[in-house]
Amino acid sequence: TCTSNVAASNAKLALFYDWLFFNPEKDSIMNIEPAILVMHHSMKPHPAITATLLDFICRIIPHFYPPLESHVRQGVFNSLNHIVEKRVLAPLAPLFDNPKLDKELRAMIREKFPEFCSSPSPPAEVKLEESVTMEMENHVADKDREDNCYDNSDAAFSDDEDDSNTKGKKREFRFHPIKEAVEEEPVDITPYLEQLDDALKEKVLLLQKGREEDLDTYTTDTEMQCEVMQEIVDMILEEDFDSEQLSTLASCLVELFKGHFRGEVLPEELTEESLEESVGKPLYVTFRNLCQMQEDNSSFSMLLDLLSELYQKQPKIGYHLLYYLRASKAAVGKMSLYESFAQATQLGDLHTCLMMDMKACQEDDVHLLCYLTPTIYSSFPDETLRSSELLNMIVAVIDSAQLQELMCQVLMGNLGMFRKDSVLNILIQSLDWETFEQYCTWQLFLAHNIPLELVIPILQHVKYKEHPEALSCLLLQLRKEKPTEEMVKMVMNRPCHTEDHFTTSILRQWSLRHEDTLSEHIKALLIKNNSLPRKRQSFPRKRKSLRSSSSKLAQLTLEQILEHLDNLRLCLLHTKQNFFSQTPILQALQHVQASCDEAHKMRFSDLFALAEDYEDSSKPSRSRRKAATSSPRSRKNTSQPPGNEEEESSSSASEEEDTKPKPKRKRKGSSAVGSDSD
């Protein structure tokens, strides 16, 4: 499930690190056992893991450290040779030459490690069973390895470092994936046949016979099997049919149609002809009959019961039904049948059934998952648009090409994966997903025409060290938006950290494109939050709680706003941008400076100085008053009518040039203290 290339590479290197310079005389066999056993035991359930590890060990030899390539090659050879000698896995040929591996990979392995491979593999057209047989014969013919091949026990970790070759202590191993050919053998359904009546038994035997025909007549057999299956369906729909036989019949059909559940379902080229041909399997005959019936018909219920029995024994039936309803012309507009099917199963719930079927599809066929996605979302919006589980299933397995195709489907109007009332919750849950999954989620979200304001509250959940994926996507999108007061509030309502530049970068972009709008919003927030501590009572809080979900944010503080503004000031310090010369900004800073405490004045003195400098250069008549803004009494005087200010400033024109304001500030400061204490 790891989608990080770096993490995956580190994990592989951790497994093989001890191989690179392995010395049998000094190093322990237990250092190299884990990697070979992971490859061995993964071949059957997870062949992709074995393949990627074998590819890694082949490629690491020349690339780990090129000057010492020969040493690395010798270390890997020593490791493999020691594994064989210690009988951890003997021989290695069944692993290196396994038919499950890609031809190019097998060729590369044969080139890198010819000593541990068998003789050249048989032609590609030979059946798997024949290939395995020939391979086994080649090994048996080797007298020196006869005792080491295909033993009775599993490969396992060594118990100790005992080098004794005594036969009594000899551990025997078997490479299980080779047995997979046995699983392809037809299953004996005789015990089930004995429980069917003669007429139904005869039809099932015909299906079994057609399944065992030669592959050259597969097309003819398929047509014949479809006809037989239709006859079986007709027998089920007869009034005198014993419904107790459905379970036994389902057991027979699941075994006989086992081949339908292997391999990819979708044809390579998606055309009407190829899709119709792909739904021409005997398994789909039941689906076709279901589409042709009325839901209130008793026969309809009988077929649903059969599908329920099949589903209980083979869960893949579910997504095959979804595929038929999506691909077949006969099933156009019949997607609601799936809901009836889900309710007829033991699950009895559409959402649970749909999630299980999509999960099975995800594990078996990613291409089919992407093909079904638009139909699933449009047909079952109540079950899908609120489901982060389904979205995670999709983004966890798709590649970049499939992501781009899904985005195209969104833009063409064929796919909608988000709804306004649930998108925020889904994005919040996606914060715990892996990096590529999160990027896919945000790309799909941005393909939708959903206002960004709806998801801005996610900012309260994202941390700059833990959620860089979400922050980077929001960063690129917010810079294109025209800021609203709510947006500015959300962006500034983030803790200030020296390493977190999210708020500063967004504010800078907005100041470049929308400086007038941004300055007005910042002024409003400054004035509102400057007066908030004195007015923060229960009534305003209750009224605010009736707003959108963004009201659940922690209260934006004046200190936060000033910190972010000071960071923006530093960012613009050596630029020609004059954002802090905007009148609304200066008015707001003056308003805050007149009422904040001395600690904030000292901390943000450079920020407040911008307002002072602006006043000194443009309104010299107010300079004397501004020189005394540090005293509480002078701050109180700022609320006086403009007429009083004019009288005070017009008393003497020469006072603006002398040095009297400084002692005057001291006197006023001392008197103000007494006034405040009173």
TrEMBL record:
Domain annotation Ints3-like C-terminal: ranges: 220-611
InterPro entries: HEAT_Ints3_C, INTS3, INTS3_N
Any one annotated GO CC term: cytoplasm
Region Disordered, residue ranges: 139-171, 614-678
Acidic residues biased stretches: 644-658
Keyword Cytoplasm among record annotations: yes
Subcellular location: Cytoplasm; Nucleus
Keywords: Cytoplasm, Nucleus
Main subcellular localisation: cytoplasm
Superkingdom in the source lineage: Eukaryota
Biased composition (Basic and acidic residues): 139-148
Family: Belongs to the Integrator subunit 3 family.
Protein name: Integrator complex subunit 3
